Amino acid sequence: MRRGGSDDGTAVIEFLVVAVLLLVPVLAAALTIVGVQAAALASTQAVRQAGRAFMIADDESSGRRSAQLASEVALNDQGFSAPAGALTITCAGRCLAPSTHVQVRLAWDVDLPWMPGFLSDWLPSVPITAQQSFSVDTYRSGLET
After folding, report:
1. CB of 42 within 8 A of CB of 113?
2. I want to staple 57 with a disulfide (CB 3.0 to 4.6 A). Which of 63, 100, 119, 122 is the partner?
3. What is the pLDDT of residue 115?
4. CA 97, 89, 109 angle in degrees (round to 5)?
5. How far apart are CA 70 and CA 134, in angstroms?
6. Phi, psi (5° rounding) for residue 86?
7. For residue 29, what pLDDT band results from cuts at 50, 70 and 90?
8. DSSP 48-110
9. Where are the domains of the chain?
């Protein structure tokens, strides 16, 4: 005969309490890390596509427009959008002149995903920066720069 009452069913309750207390925060942290990593990978793809679009353009102004559009499409494909002015293109010398080096950079802040609204007001966003260098072909000619 047992003293002190019955323990029937308490193991299930204890397991559920521990599972909720441990698994929910771990799952939230994992989803946050995955969301930030997705933003970083999308930024890398956006910079690569922007640089390619810029390099095949006929002139600098159309190249900048094409690069901006290409980066927006690449980010939208992954469910992100960068603010205006996040994409910068700098050239060492005249842009699109043969043997010129072009630096394409995308810098923006991504909010932490899966955070409720009341927490997002005081939690910092994560800065995301991606950059890539391109070299204009030495034999490129016949284009106005």
Report:
1. no
2. 63
3. 72
4. 165
5. 16
6. -75, -30
7. confident
8. HHHHHHHHT-SSHHHHHHHHHHHHHHHHHHTT--PPTT-EEEEEESSTTSTT-EEEEEEEEEE
9. 11-135
